[in-house]
């Protein structure tokens, strides 16, 4: 039984019923009018209680269908796909043979133990990162180190947002950003992406809707592969000029592998900004390290978000990262990796176009392939032919609407023969899906 006479008490009562299993996903809650009458409260109090629960992700408002307990759905993850006999095109992992051997830098990394109270960023890595990022930031950046890009974005958002605040995200979007925003209780404002990257109209709409933070991928946008043109970046900077205190996070995850130039949306007068560059795509996901260049105030707030928990990223990892990033042979291997990914994507796109699939190589580790048919149906037919692909549905922020007609395919570990087989099978899968739709 729901108890309480205030919004907070009613919300806590319903939360308790869910935790004890008396209410399960899909169960309906009383209509607002009925709840208000039963509890002897104002209707607005009941509305406020349900709003609290919705922000916490415990309930879902479904219009005329009422309010129901939210499902405990599994959110898709980057770098993960179900195990099995299928050829995996969906994980988005880098090729192991192009990841530099960390043992090459381990000897130099091992040295004097680092104790409590010492600087949290390795001095050599800090200097290297500052020189690397300075050409791409509006002012000399303060350098922070986090446990990967997801950790950086989560902590950067947390130091400026509260539950229910709005954050602008690209749509479609990087899986981890969607998960971070949903789990933190922020309200995502979808910003459409086209072949030139984040759209001006989408950014303007998000800002007019009260977004206090924007997350943008300037190049090799995941999953579409789009990179900002100079004209588009200029237009986005002009829109942001009227909102100088909105935190702008630029996720340049592909950095050293990218074939496209970096074009920032942060103008010279902008007050709150952060450039995030993870090393996971070229030094390996297990290194769990990202470099963050930001304005001084953002860096100080980020440090406060780090201090109660991890406080710092292991100096051993930082020294290994510096050793590899400053080593000529490792940088050569990273450059070859970027070229390999680009060549494999180009070869796959060519094979697909020869079979009438309008694939276009952009930048990044994967292809964003238009199918002209519901992607889930195409993916099901691909599975029957031995391929596992991600559909555009996984990367969407907007729920509902027309089914996605895109697949994201990671093809860099396929040989020429396999690329031909994939192109043939995808063409047949699309044809099967079209026939089913008819």
TrEMBL record:
Name this polypeptide is given: Transcriptional regulator PtsJ
- Reply yes or no: does the keyword Cell membrane apply: no
The protein's UniProt keywords, in alphabetical order, are:
DNA-binding, Pyridoxal phosphate, Transcription, Transcription regulation
- Which residues lie in coiled coils? none
Give the InterPro entries listed for this entry: Aminotransferase_I/II_large, HTH_trans_reg/aminotransferase, PyrdxlP-dep_Trfase, PyrdxlP-dep_Trfase_major, Tscrpt_reg_HTH_GntR, WH-like_DNA-bd_sf, WH_DNA-bd_sf
HTH gntR-type domain segment(s): 4-72
Cite a single GO MF annotation: pyridoxal phosphate binding
Q: Which family does it belong to?
A: In the C-terminal section; belongs to the class-I pyridoxal-phosphate-dependent aminotransferase family.
User: Keyword RNA-binding, does the record have it?
Assistant: no
């Amino acid at each position: 039984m729901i108890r309480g006479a205030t919004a907070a008490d009613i919300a806590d009562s319903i939360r308790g019923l869910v935790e004890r299993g008396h209410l399960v996903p899909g169960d309906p809650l009383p209509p607002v009018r009925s709840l208000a009458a039963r509890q002897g409260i104002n209707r607005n109090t009941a509305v406020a209680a349900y709003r609290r629960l919705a922000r916490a992700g415990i309930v879902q408002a479904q219009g005329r269908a009422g309010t129901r307990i939210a499902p405990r759905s599994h959110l898709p993850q980057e770098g993960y796909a179900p195990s099995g006999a299928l050829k995996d095109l969906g994980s988005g992992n880098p090729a192991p043979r192009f990841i530099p051997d960390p043992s090459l830098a381990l000897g130099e990394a091992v040295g004097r133990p680092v104790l409590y109270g010492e600087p949290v960023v390795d001095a050599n890595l800090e200097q290297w990162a500052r020189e690397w990022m300075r050409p791409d930031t509006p002012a000399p950046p303060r350098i922070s180190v986090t446990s990967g890009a997801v950790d950086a974005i989560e902590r950067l958002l947390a130091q400026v947002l509260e539950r229910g605040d709005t954050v602008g995200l690209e749509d479609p979007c990087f899986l981890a950003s969607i998960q971070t925003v949903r789990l933190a209780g922020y309200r995502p404002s979808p910003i459409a992406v086209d072949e030139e990257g984040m759209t001006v109209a989408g950014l303007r709409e998000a800002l007019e809707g009260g977004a206090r933070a924007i997350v943008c991928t300037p190049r090799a946008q995941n999953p579409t592969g789009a990179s900002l043109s100079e004209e588009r970046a200029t237009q986005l900077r002009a829109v942001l000029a009227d909102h100088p205190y909105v935190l702008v996070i630029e996720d340049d995850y592909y950095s050293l592998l990218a074939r496209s130039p970096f074009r920032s949306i942060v103008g010279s007068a902008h007050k709150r900004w952060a450039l995030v560059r993870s090393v996971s795509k070229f030094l390996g996901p297990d290194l769990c390290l990202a470099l963050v260049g930001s304005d001084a105030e953002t860096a100080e707030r980020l440090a406060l978000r780090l201090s109660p928990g991890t406080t710092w990223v292991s100096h051993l990892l930082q020294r290994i990262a510096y050793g590899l990033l400053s080593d000529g042979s490792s940088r050569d291997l990273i450059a070859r990796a970027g070229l390999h990914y680009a060549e494999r994507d180009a070869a796959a796109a060519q094979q697909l176009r020869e079979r009438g699939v309008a694939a276009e190589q952009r930048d990044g580790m994967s292809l964003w392939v238009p199918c002209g048919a519901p992607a889930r149906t195409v993916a099901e037919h691909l599975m029957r032919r031995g391929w596992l692909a991600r559909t555009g549905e996984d990367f969407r922020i907007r729920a509902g609407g027309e089914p996605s007609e895109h697949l994201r395919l990671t093809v860099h570990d396929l040989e020429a023969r396999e690329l031909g087989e994939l192109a043939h099978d995808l063409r047949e899968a699309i044809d099967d899906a079209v026939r089913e739709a008819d």
